[in-house]
Amino acid sequence: MSTPLDVLNKQFGFSEFRFHQQKIIESVLAKKDTAVLMPTGGGKSLCYQIPALLFDGLTIVISPLIALMKDQVDGLRLNGVAASFLNSTLSVNEQAQVMNDIRNQQIKILYIAPEKIFINEQQFLNFLKPLNISLFAIDEAHCISQWGHDFRPEYLQLAVLKKHFPEVPIIALTATADELTRKDILEKLKLQSPKIFISSFNRENIHYYIEPKRNWLPYLLNYLKEHKEDSGIIYCLSRASTESLADDLMEYGFSAKPYHAGLEKQQRDLHQDLFIKDKVKIIVATIAFGLGIDKSNVRYVFHVDLPKNIESYYQETGRAGRDGIKSDAILFYGRGDLVKLKKFCEIENNPAQSKIMLEKLNKMARLCETQTCRRKFMMNYFGEEYPDYCGSCDVCLSKYEKFDGTIIAQKALSAVARLDQRYGVNFVIDFLRGSKSEKIMDWQMQLKTYGVGADTGKEEWRQYLNDLIVMGYLHQEEGQYPVLKLTEKSRAVLKGEEKVTFVKTITRKEVEQKELPYEVELFSLLKILRNRLAEEARVPSYIIFSDTTLLELATYLPQDFSELTKISGFGEIKLQRYGKMFLDEVVDFCKKNKLPSRIMNKFPKRQRKTRSPRTSERSDTKLESFELFRSGKSITEIATLRNLSASTIENHLAHYIESGEIEIDELVTPEKIEQIEKAIQLHGDLSLGVLKNELGEDVSYGEIRAVISFIKLNGSK
Ligand code: ADP
Ligand code: ZN
Q1: Which of 6, 19, 46, 197 to mutate to test the pocket of ligand 1 (most atoms within 8 A of CB)?
Q2: How far apart are CA 358 and CA 362, in angstroms?
């Protein structure tokens, strides 16, 4: 009898399950209806593919993404899985052939699109009835809901499944679902007391940078020059700008193509295909690009223009790094874009909808203007808790200097007060700087605060006002007229009872680009080999092997077959089919360069963590907290000393638990450890918010994080 882990090792060549996968697979194998919310790249496919291989009968996967089906099936076949698909791209003859294979039980996993294949429900049922079906997997399950962003009416016919096949379990999977959509999915599919698994939506390997839009082009060119080997997407707002930017980039010698809905279909498909097959490195696109793209090695996503809301930003940046390797999301932000986009928010004859759109846009702008961790801001927006510090966004990576800005704040707040709290940011700045603009009326020019901020630049004032908003000393109204108002906190500052501290960015720390030292030249050689094989097999290259696999080869330099099996991605079939070719390439390279195998460095995870590559990435600020902790200071003392919150300090220290340098019981009492472990077992969840809710006031976020780090290092007790 095979276990899920055997299948993972042998058929897919991976050594361990990711956080929720095992529990999800166990739930499905116990024939329970199961709902899975996991971000893109989280590893949803294995959640139904592995049960499919362990069940006797056929697994039917329903997916709306016709364009992806062939790739998915090709990928499975390369791992020796008997898979096939049925959709309208097949000829009648081809469809008949697939049907035949199914009847002869030669297929374990069948992908179908609920589109034209079945004209009506009855036909769909007639097709399914005679089959020995073990499992239904509904991919992109949010398509069944009108509340989701991608409603597909044909998904509604899936409601018949539970009625006619009450004994067959259903697994529903999606990467996007708010509360409303989630409920809708469960209801519409009529899932029976489903087990629900919600993963954190944090994409840890994506690093977020938001840069000023001034001088964006030199920044972009410089970045592209340093990442010539990598694939990436550059999003622009308009069709025209995608074309002109792609042209410019080609002139600068980059391999780039445009993509937007206005291009001929043939050309669009060609550009997409070139990109997927790694023959073109950069695609310059409108947001029309990306749906139904499964390319796992997108290393960066640029936004030259501001996205309309945080949902879009998250989805578009989420196309980077599906293979789990570090990737960058870089956005250029300027206030001009905000003004431009506001026009798009107005939806004719629908003031309610317009208002929502405008609020979402303002939130997006706030994300760009915030001086707090970008990741935290985003996670909070999606209803998840997150500590103050992520260590991989531009804010966290910058070094700041604090200074007393009480006088600056007093000037700004009294200007707002004198102007009767009736004006927005721009007017207040003009007023403070003593502008001669006609907008400012005579009586206003007579006020004492008029011109008191003339010594400070416009942009600087904008930053100060924004900081005051973020810190809660000012409130900006939502809606069409974002007027500035005073708050409870303003009064104390105006009366001189409270000091205000601003922060100024001084430097950006350079992050280390690669986690592990690898042989750069060998990596390129392996890519060439992979691309050749992909061409022969007529599949995208990442279907042969992901970048992760090639990177491991170029890092650990396996010298024989037994070492090769330790590399992630080499299942039994791929080992037979491609093992020798890749091994030869590595061995050859090592001979020429006199390099030994480094496979010993690829410890099982538990031991590897102790010498985590993070050590090098670990920032000074964490180290500072750690050293204070080692010198005997308590968390509260360190927090006071460093002028940081206790939860930030706890978060710093959690990293040292993961590396084994702090023992868990130095930070958390045994009773609490037990309590937290229980909650984690119950919810099986990385979402700190859910756990905190469950555990209540007594347990802090930092304590939960510490226990999670501890479990990562040691496994559950
Ligand atoms: P999703 O459908 O959630 O976007 P996928 O199922 O396509 O994600 O998985 C994303 C990538 O992660 C794929 O390349 C897949 O092979 C890889 N992957 C999934 N699970 C594991 C695992 N347990 N170990 C290593 N790689 C994995
Ligand atoms: Zn951050």
Answers
A1: 46
A2: 6
